[in-house]
Amino acid sequence: MTAERITVIGGGLAGCEAAWQLARRGVDVDVELYEMRPAVPTPAHTTALFAELVCSNSLKSDRENSASWLLKEELRRAGSLLLRIAGDCAVPAGQALAVDRDRFAAQVTQAIEQEPRIRIRREEVRDIPAESVVIVATGPLTSDSLAESIARVTGAERLYFYDSISPIVDADSIDRNKVFAASRYGKGIEADGSSDTDDYLNCPMDEHEYQRFYEALIAAEEVTRHEFENANYFEACLPIEELARRGRDTLRFGPMKPVGLKDPRTGKMPYAVVQLRQENIRADSYNLVGFQNHLKFAEQKQILRLIPGLESAELLRYGQIHRNTYVNAPALLHSTLQLRADPRIFLAGQICGVEGYVESIATGLLAGIHAARLVQAERPQAPPRATACGSLCHYVSSADPRNYQPANIAFDLLPPLCAAVPAKRDKQARHALQCEIALRKFDEWLRTVDQVPAPEPVSRTSI
Fold this sequence. Notes:
- The chain has helices spanning 13-24, 67-77, 81-88, 101-113, 144-154, 207-219, 240-244, 297-304, 357-375, 388-398, 427-449; strands spanning 5-9, 30-34, 58-61, 90-91, 96-99, 118-121, 133-136, 159-165, 168-170, 180-181, 200-205, 272-278, 285-288, 315-317, 320-326, 345-347.
- By secondary structure, the chain is α/β, with parallel strands linked by helices.
- Strands 10-11-12-13-9-14 form a 6-stranded antiparallel beta sheet.
């Protein structure tokens, strides 16, 4: 189709990746990237930078042949801007890819601002433009006016779930005499391939300390909820107080599980443990892993100081909760992320119901590739079902619309291996084979859709 411009709405992970992919494919139309911040703030963002990470600083596992690694590897092979910058801004996190969030957002912002094919518009888009190809990548905090515009175009009601933000503590306020440094099962891999087992700080608890913490947590007072705030939390991001209400030991099998960790001072596994993950390259702050919550700030301060090593903790950021918006994608989208009712409109990121940073980047990258093909009179072509990207888009477009829930990438989204593969083959070997097949199929797909020379695959060691 012909178009005078491509409009990308939203300067988050998906929007920035989409705009970058459009620019690098040399589309002969203007690429306009709209971001309403700082003119219109959101309840969760604190800066005007593009790609600001408001929850965790972790992009999850980068262990080879895991589902999360597979999705990252596909994005690296497709020349993802944000995956490259994430590698540049990585901080120690065992086998996970975690970033210095300030440096990450600053580098993404700089790259977008310096790209001559992208025009940045710092203003709110209240209605979907009528005469352009549009990528809506407004994320979980889509403004009410634009959400209403989306509802008018799709004829669908908005859906909500609630996501939470974990607290961050000042590194200098941690009592190092009471914590120990280790990664679970001693696993940790540096960029040069060397072993490192000290990526997390661990606050060990005995049974008495855990019981005292648990009782204080379930008795704590929550922030008053608004009428629309029904407890429709995304299951993978449940607040710790919500988990605690499910039973005394729920936390010990969840974010506080001690399995795979031994206190070097005792040689024993603690009864429970709180893990702290480095927030930035300076290592001057730490994130409480899995400790998102909806408690009043005064309650948080009192309860978190019951954790051994955090008795004098200075909180740089309190846990919070915010509303996320997404659409009923299976009822609305093709596997190319185009609206069935209006194929010139693409949805990318959490607005279409993917959950997770890397998943948002992936849908942004794909929407950018598809939109570039559309304005170049080429048919958008979804990645093969056997790939992580293809399976994610298959889920978004083909899940049961009667009970649609946001999804992270997982092997159960990928098609099962054929019957010829021995069923007794161990899980690790089967996952390795699935990754091998996926990457081969993804490379074949890239060769058919790329309108520019394909970039060299970016290895983990080179970023």
